[in-house]
């Protein structure tokens, strides 16, 4: 037999690629923020207007576009988070594309409301 002692293997620390980058956390928090806003708006409308009939809330163009914008932004954030987890090397480019996409989507929502009210 050989006289070489086997060393015990220590658990390795996580590599940089295995740790969750902060940009993914930012996108996840933004997605939950948009989802909570939509939940609060629709919950308030459903509880006070539809169920209890205490107040009458009108669904005008601004509130409708705000609900659509926040719901769609939430879906985009959660989809981007999944895309970032699958492609860890292109996180920065995906994040910049997401910021640009949110800006363009916001402009589109504003102009849609402006045209509808005109």
Supply database-style keywords.
elongated; mainly alpha; 118 residues
Could you give a short description of this structure?
With 118 residues, the chain is mainly α. It is 70% helix and 0% strand. It has one domain.
What do you see in this structure?
- The protein has 118 residues and is mainly alpha-helical.
- It has one domain.
- It has three helices and no strands.
This entry's quaternary arrangement is single chain
Average pLDDT reading: 85
Provide the domain count. Answer: 1
How would you classify the helix and strand content by structural class?
mainly alpha
Order of helices and strands: HHH
- The helicity comes to over 70%
Overall, the morphology is: elongated
Task: Furnish the topology, listing elements before pairings.
Layout: H1 22-51, H2 61-86, H3 91-117
